[in-house]
Write a structure and sequence with these properties.
By secondary structure, this protein is of the alpha/beta class. Helices cover 44% and strands 14% of the residues. It has two domains: 152 residues, HAD superfamily/HAD-like (Rossmann fold, 3-Layer(aba) Sandwich), CATH 3.40.50; 66 residues, DNA polymerase, domain 1. The chain binds magnesium ion (MG).
Length: 229
């Protein structure tokens, strides 16, 4: 049976939270690569891609785009290394219902389990490994685009390469915890499921009009129904 739905999970705030350790690791990597610690800079990261954060945050510290670009290869290696140092299973929260839901989705042939995340791929792998989550068949990651809105197309292409199937419109489902998750698939007309386990509460997410809105992912049966609807 071929998959009928491409199910794309965001990571931070949706599947898990690193409780500040992920950002601390990121700041260490910035400091190691560019020589300045951006910890005190006021910058909203949620829902942005890692590449977008690099350019946006480092611009506030006075770095040009060329200076940022030349440090990127070192950053993509250093950041996952710092993550390994900073994260542990005990200090990582896997949100309610996530293990059961991820397991259920990866076990259903009609559903193709994937990631759509602002994390770079290596960082995503470390976070999922520490959390003990696996089974993701495809993904779109934050080192490939500055704009999150460009990631769904990359995930759809990866799914096509893997399965030969062409996912479009509401057969693509994005599950995330920020307004940017809801907005990023809008141009493709995807189905959006918002979950209030991150920085945004139900009321603020509801304003962006997701197709479904859950307080968390513990109502596995209802979420699966929403995926298949
Ligand atoms: Mg998130």
């Amino acid at each position: 049976m071929t998959a009928r739905r491409l199910v794309l999970f965001d990571i931070d705030g949706t599947l898990l939270s690193t409780n500040g350790n992920g950002v601390r690791a990121m700041m260490r990597a910035y400091t190691a690569v560019w020589g300045k610690d951006p910890s005190g800079v006021d910058y909203a990261m949620s829902g942005k891609t890692e590449l977008g954060i690099c350019y946006g945050l480092l611009a506030l510290l006075g770095f040009t785009r060329d200076e940022v670009r030349s440090g990127l290869p070192r950053f993509w290696k250093r950041y996952p290394r710092e993550l390994r140092r900073h994260l542990s299973p005990r200090s990582t929260t896997v949100h309610p219902g996530v293990r059961e839901l991820v397991h259920a989705v990866s076990g259903q042939p009609a559903l193709l389990l994937g990631l759509l995340t602002g994390n770079c791929e290596a960082a995503a792998c470390v976070k999922l490994e520490v959390a003990g989550l696996d089974g993701f068949a495809v993904g779109a990651f934050g080192e490939h685009h500055e704009e999150r809105a460009s990631l769904p197309t990359l995930a759809v292409e990866a799914a096509r390469r893997l399965t030969g199937a062409d996912f479009r419109g509401k057969s693509i489902v994005i599950i995330g915890d920020t307004p940017n998750d809801i907005l990023c698939g809008r141009a493709l007309g995807v189905k959006t499921i918002a979950v209030a386990t991150g920085r945004f509460d139900r009321e603020s997410l509801a304003r962006y009009d997701p197709d479904y809105l859950f307080p968390d992912l513990s109502a596995c049966g209802s979420v699966l129904e929403a995926l298949h609807a």
